[in-house]
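#structure-requests
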Amino acid sequence: MRKLATIAALALALTACSEDSAKPISPPEPGKLRILAGSELADLQPVLDKAAQATGVRVEFTFSGTIEGAQALAGGSTDGRYDAVWFSSNRYLEGLPDAARRLGNQTKIMASPVVLGLAESKAKALGWIDKPVTWADIANAAGAKSFSYGMTDPSSSNSGFSALVGVASALAGTGRAITAEQVAGVTPALKKFFTAQAMSAGSSGWLSEAYQRRVTGADPGEKIDGIINYESVLLTLNNQLPEKLKLIYPLDGVVTADYPLTLLTSAGDAARADHQKLGDYLRGAETQKSIMDVTKRRPAVPGVALNGEFEQKILVELPFPAKQESFDALLSAYFDQIRRPSRTLYVLDTSGSMSGDRIEALRSAVAGLTGASDDLIGRYRKFRGREEVTLLPFNSGPEQPVTFVIPETGQDTELERIREFARGLKANGGTAIYDSLDAAYSALDRNLSADKFTSIVLMTDGENSNGSDIDDWERNHKSRKAELKRVPVFSVVFGEGDKSELERVAAQTGGRVFDARDGALSDVFREIRGYQ
């Protein structure tokens, strides 16, 4: 856990919020590369520190999700602000013409396939130890609910997106990348595969930490048998688990992240020279060995031998779609038809301190989840078909919750009802955070389903001033039935909200705290969608 926690802390220290990805980190200068990157690269910092000493080239990271980075790149807001991008893969970026034309020289630095990690006892029970296993075998076992797993949201994280694409391509059985036209045909098989998904997450790192908390009993959530993630993350995680994960490399192939350090076409001559220097250093044999030791990622340079931790056989690489319409069709089917639907209850602070710009920001954030924005992020992080959404405003006490059910098709009418509700939110009164959170659990208790990803989102801009306090809430929570204790609370601290108390709520429920005090509330609401 210590290494995972260290990486997470480093990522937090180095990360600028996703909404800041269009802002300059600092002016360009020789000897410095300003890079927009995936947050998992935080673990590469020790190698980059040595690279700076050896080459005189220092890396200045801003971390971003792949979809957020793609939107910034396609919209041109990276021009002149960044010298390079460095995500786990450029495949999605290359499928967007406006993003692809901004990509210059690419230098592949390391590699990590996305694979299934199962508790060794479960893999043995399934007969998957030292036996060839295909994605169809995995899908059949998943459909029979012979095991359960966690995976990142494919609109939030490349590991989840790679898994979705890889499974779909393998199950299509054509030997070629899946097309938009083929998605409907493979949807029934994908439904079987995702029947076993019992946890979602917005990032690969958080997924691994949540899995470890669950198997050790520190998280009240449903126990799961494994996770789909990068090989590097699973190898690191294995050093922290009471029972190791058996890594399953499907016989019909995997999708591998190749981490290309990519110069942007807008970069100046000095940045071009620095990109070359850094790439050459990182691809040196000794540095490749160091990257393998530090990050558990495979070397990108032929001739550098794998150490004993890695599967030694040659892995089959599954084909990847090259067009945005294929991505869109697959993601739309995943959210609207394939995956377990969501049941989310939003507990929304409408106290007097929320008046003015803050209540308008809340109205906009809720409306934004109805598809009001058609940018890349808005397209994938909106309320989806089969989803159940409950809005519970509160001030001096909780108001009556109102529930909306999004149909699989013909969603416009219900989404407009949500927008109308959001427009009617008004700020007044005090702040009864914990009475309102208790009311949320009571509302869920009347309609709790094991077939849905159920969660609570709590947004507040102030300290609790009415009703029960955090200690009362914790006592109440201990007496809830087990199914309710497993419902995570994802809290959003806004304005003068008390983050320390919300961290206690997250620890009790297996949730997380998101900070919107220095950014846009709508961006944080959309980020949370990856965990629902």
